[in-house]
Amino acid sequence: VKWYFVSRSAFFLALPLLELWVFRGEKHKVFPLLIAFFVALFFTIYFYYSIKKNKLSVIHPLLDTFLLSFFIPLTGGHESPFIPFYYAFILVGAILFYAPGAFAVATSSAIFYLFLILGEYRNFIPSSYFILGKEPFTETSLYLRPTIYILLFYFLAALSAYLAERLKRGLTELEKIRITTDDIVKRMEGGVLALDERGRIIYFNPYLASLLGLENIPGNIKDLGSAWEGIWREVREKERMEREMEVDGKVLFVKGAMLRDKKGKVIGSVFLIDDYTERKFIERMVTVGKISASIAHSLRNPVSSIKGAAELLSGNPEKDKKLIRIIREEVERIESMVKGFLAYAREEKLDKRKVPLRKIVDDVVNSVKLSPEFSKKKIEIKVKGKGEEVEVDVMKFKEAIYNVVHNAVKAMDKGRIEIKVDGRKIEIKDTGPGIPEEVREKIFEPFFTLDPKGTGLGLSITKKIVELHGGRIEVESEEGKGSVFAITL
Hints:
By secondary structure, the protein is α+β, with helices and mostly antiparallel strands.
């Protein structure tokens, strides 16, 4: 409606003003042009208030055919170049009011056009109104051309009415689908988030807004924070994703998928979000129970060693030196297990700041090279790439990377560790013994370890820290050839 109002107003107001400027020195031609301008202005004001009050009807394009007929004698009569503009108003009638509008405007166009032809031919219209002069009629301009025009009026009305009615049926069906879909999505007990190909938010259902405590929906996924930007990047890389993430103390389970058109072009992405906070609390309680049982089992061996060594103490420092060393080592082992458990169990709060990803990796490598395990082995560590600047809790993120690199060092006596930093991704590749396939899925579970002296908490803590940052950790391994750990923010 707006484009129709603007275009018809511009045409009907500009045309008499242009002719007024052209004929500004000829007073006998100025008067009819002024009448035409003020008639057009009146119609424009009437249209404006009709649209404002939402009262636009088929009368309006009918009035425009009358106004066009008012202008045709001013622009050459039966030779006017503006006669084909009747076609435009027939199309407008079809678009806005479908078949009734198309045929009503075609009929009014035919009536007004015939009246103009007869009025000009029979001199019903004053000669002074034809400011460009009157061209003599020929047989073609009197009979053939009007017949062709009127036939074309009705042909165009029939064609545009047919297309408009098809469009109307399609829009009606589409609206039914939209209402049904919107109704379903609004009532879903789960969040729905839809993005376009640039990450702009195009749908955000009320459940998700309530879940995140948002009154105003942001315009872009980046405005929701780095964790949300992370899942968007992940789904762009993988086509599909599903994982848990923590946002403002809530545990959310997110499923995402790319959206493509029939030609395979990416048009956006959609995410389903569930609140797993209560579920995770229950799972955590179950995990605490399992961990408690695991701790009890793990403590049995060092406690037995301490007890046995204590019973064998003779009071002779020289004879008891070995037994005291065993007691000390087992106590340190228990202390390490307790520290690891506390680190895994505590609620983490991130103190984020921006830092180059490569700098974090370099600091971790320097720390690993100073460890006692590294100095006893022939291992080469190489770092490649620069990476982006990332916003992380530097100390915790260093701990996450350190655990992976340190595990690689402990797993081999000699070999090579290659660390590649690319964008927001760190890839740690070693030439160690690899991880057996049957236990590969368990390596991130608390207290699972292949090292008899390990606590089994290093990789589980790493996974927790990475996910707190909205990232993910993945592993590929082949026995006898080594492993590759990939951390992506």
